[in-house]
Design brief:
single chain; 559 residues; alpha+beta; 6-stranded antiparallel sheet; 5-stranded mixed sheet; globular
């Protein structure tokens, strides 16, 4: 399939469907079924290309504002997909002059007072087992398409706010047709955004200056490895510590016929040699979410999984990977019948960083989850329940160990955990007596005989401290929010959430508390994609890009 053939197929679907989106999709599926696998995949790639070009065009965003009164990331994407479905002429004429749209299409499209949308166009041509992953458009064809867009869509460096100030001249007919009140345009967001970025940059500079007063900055030597995306594979890398230079990689299949997704393959992927070894999943797994790494020893890796294992008839499971047999096994999560609701949702408590994942103690593995009602039709609020679960390793039995608690850690015969009041509690496992050790704690972990913890000293400042032999030592004071931290020996990984409102920057650092040195290191797109062990720091960074053909990058920093 080439660009010309793509638009021809779009035009045929449009003419034969008479504006009925369901019929449009059925016609497209039938036409695509007669094509090769590559052409079906290319159709989807062309849809994605043109939708992205429209979605990023501020003219279309301004038109969306006039039609509906507000615009979100999702609504503008679905509007852009609808525009692609209208055909080549409507697509380019609208992006050239958005005020002409109401003349180019049937006005009944706007009767609901909403932006037209066509979300399901994204999955056309993806019903087939061979057709579940994207394919890259040929470089020469991509160059041609970019040239066509440049020639047919006027270049304009103005932003949405620049255009909005001239809305009467840009969209006069649309304003009248949709009865849009130009007083609804709010330019304060632009000023707020500019001030926000200035405040973020200022706070970042101030934070670095504070760090440099007490720590010696060292340039870290970082190794990085790209995990390439093959022609017909769009795997998901499971963020977890690398074992023997390998990470777990999974592949999914989507079927739009019944709107289901299935986990089809799981591999050991060596990011240095690119070698792969397929793992036996031992189950049919539907509606996949993600394996969440909990802990590992020499023989097994333990995961939390928020997907449906058909054989267990449950939406979440405890997963065990066996190195020797190269297989997964699954256990349903235990639920106290007194707490069970009709619909339940589980999440691994606090993410899957070292201080918030599993810990081993006396032949058992302990980890915390949060259980909450997940019924969209139940309007009665149910307070989330934090649980510490225990897996006995001899027979792999799973049970509830403690309620209203999370972040389990052990030291000698003492269990340390956090309660819902942000207190660290110490329970003597021999006498079963409890005492409050620390208050106002946001996170903690135990390393040897030392207890490390973070606190918010006031609404804007946080501290990282160490409790040892009854004495508290300040490590970081008056910092922005300490997003998360992990400790191995004398090395601490810490990330700071530098923010002045919604969003912000999250720089990551390695602190050597023995020689007072600090290294700035990469952090994953998701803040929990980092791992610290005795010899290395790892970040698994997820990068969903078409060019370069990378879906993940593994960073290593050796101590």
């Amino acid at each position: 399939m080439n660009n010309k053939q793509f638009w021809q197929l779009i035009e045929e679907c449009r003419n034969q469907s008479n504006g009925n989106k369901k019929r449009y999709r059925n016609i497209a599926d039938k036409k695509l079924a007669d094509l090769s696998v590559d052409d079906r995949l290319l159709f989807n790639a062309y849809v994605s290309f043109y939708a992205a070009r429209a979605e990023e065009n501020p003219r279309l965003m301004l038109l969306g504002k006039v039609i509906e009164g507000s615009v979100t990331d999702d609504s503008i994407l679905y509007f852009a997909l609808w525009l692609v479905s209208c055909g080549e002429k409507v697509y380019f004429e609208t992006l050239k002059n958005p005020d002409k749209l109401i003349e180019l299409v049937d006005k009944s499209e706007f009767e609901a007072g909403l932006m037209p949308e066509f979300e399901i166009l994204m999955t056309a041509g993806k019903d087939d087992a061979d057709c579940d992953d994207p394919i890259n458009i040929d470089d020469a064809e991509l160059q041609l398409m970019n040239q066509i867009c440049s020639e047919r869509i006027p270049k304009d460096a103005r932003t949405y706010y620049d255009l909005a100030r001239e809305i009467d001249a840009i969209l006069p007919n649309s304003i009248r047709f949709f009865d849009f009140d130009t007083d609804d345009l709010d330019f304060s967001y632009e000023a707020i955004e500019q001030e926000y970025m200035r405040s973020i940059e200022k706070l970042q500079d101030e934070t670095f200056e504070k760090l440099k007063k007490n720590w010696t900055f060292i340039q870290s030597e970082i190794k990085s490895y790209d995990i390439l995306k093959p022609k017909r594979a769009y795997p998901h890398i499971i963020p977890m510590p690398a074992f023997n230079d390998c990470v777990l990689k999974t592949k999914y299949k989507y079927s739009s016929k019944n709107d289901t997704t299935e986990l089809t393959n799981c591999y050991w992927h060596n990011y240095k040699t690119e070698e792969e070894k397929e793992i036996n999943l031992n189950a049919r797994i539907r509606m996949p979410g993600t394996f969440r790494y909990i802990a590992a020893n020499d023989d097994f890796i333990y995961f939390f999984a928020n997907f449906t294992v058909e054989s267990l008839n449950c939406e979440c499971a405890f997963c065990i990977y066996n190195f020797a047999s190269n297989t997964f096994s699954y256990l349903p999560l235990p639920v106290d019948t007194a707490e069970k609701a009709v619909f339940l949702s589980y999440s691994l408590q606090g993410g899957y960083k070292k201080e918030k994942s599993g810990v081993f103690y006396q032949n058992s593995l302990y980890f915390s989850i949060e259980m909450k009602d997940n019924d969209p039709f139940n309007h009665t609020y149910i307070k989330p329940l934090s649980l510490i679960l225990r897996c006995q390793l001899q027979d792999n039995t799973l049970s509830v160990f403690k309620k209203e608690a999370n972040l389990p850690h052990f030291q000698d015969d003492n269990l340390y955990f956090m309660d819902n009041a942000e207190c660290v509690i110490c329970e003597n496992l021999t006498t079963h007596t409890e005492k409050v050790v620390l208050e106002n704690v946001t996170a903690f972990m135990i390393e040897g005989s030392r207890l490390f913890f973070s606190q918010h000293t006031d609404s804007n400042n946080y501290s990282l401290k160490c409790l040892h032999n009854g004495n508290v030592k300040d490590l970081l004071t008056n910092m922005p929010q300490i997003h998360c931290f992990s400790v191995v020996g004398d090395i601490i990984y810490v990330s700071l959430y530098i923010s002045q409102g919604d969003g912000g920057l999250i720089p990551g650092f390695l602190l050597n508390i023995k020689d007072k040195t600090i290294y700035e290191v990469p952090i994953g797109d998701q803040s929990s994609d980092f791992y610290l062990d005795e010899h290395k720091y790892f970040t698994i960074r997820l990068i969903y890009e078409e060019e370069p053909k990378v879906i993940a990058r593994v960073y290593e920093v050796e101590f």
